[in-house]
Amino acid sequence: MRNIILFGLPRSGKSYFSRHLAKKIGKEAIETDTLLEQLYTQKKGKTLPCSAIYRKIGETPFRELEKEVVSSLQCNGKILSLGGGTILCPENQKTLAKIGSLVYLVVEKEIWKQQMHKSPLPTYLDSTHLDESLENLYQKRLSQYEKIPATPLLQTGKTDEEIITTLEKLYYGK
């Protein structure tokens, strides 16, 4: 059985929906951010969250770690949630498309901005010009995500249970 792979903007529900889908169907949810943290710990002997790793090593080495994580994935029948930028690397897209079905979790801009304001900001955002920084990230990622061959799943107007049921159908190929 192939994997189902969720991607989308930061805080678009990738982790939330992967955990809930996994619980509902009795499968394992895997987060690439967690795997990246484990890889960093293995290489450097120091445990840090993704945000701290990104700050410490910078974007290019961080994206290289993401590529290493993706290329090492050897799983079947899992629910994977990707870090927001993981799917942007063409090499990662090819690797992920071979091991599973890609699902783009689409969230409306205003709802997404509200989500971003609720919790600590990713380190790559400019907190002094937050609205502009969020707008730029949204527009940039949206244009990139829409080019990726994936099943878009618009969350607007759907309950969490409806989204999970849709993901379950996609997982089983219905």
CATH topology annotation:
Rossmann fold
CATH architecture: 3-Layer(aba) Sandwich
Number of helices: 8
The whole-angstrom Rg is 16 Å
Give the strand content.
Answer: 5-15%
Report the major sheet.
Answer: 5 strands, parallel
Description:
The structure is a single chain. This protein has 174 residues and is of the alpha/beta class. The chain has a single domain (3-171), classed as P-loop containing nucleotide triphosphate hydrolases (Rossmann fold, 3-Layer(aba) Sandwich), CATH 3.40.50. Helices cover 55% and strands 13% of the residues. The chain is built from 8 helices and 5 strands. A 5-stranded parallel beta sheet has the order 2-3-1-4-5. The chain is globular and about 45 Å long. It starts with a strand and ends with a helix. The mean pLDDT is 92.
Could you outline the blueprint of secondary structure elements for this entry?
Layout: E1 3-8, H1 14-25, E2 29-31, H2 32-44, H3 50-57, H4 59-72, E3 79-81, H5 90-99, E4 100-106, H6 109-118, H7 130-145, E5 151-154, H8 160-171
Quick overview:
The chain is α/β, with parallel strands linked by helices and 174 residues long.
Tags for this model:
single chain, 174 residues, alpha/beta, Rossmann fold, five-stranded parallel β-sheet, 55% helix
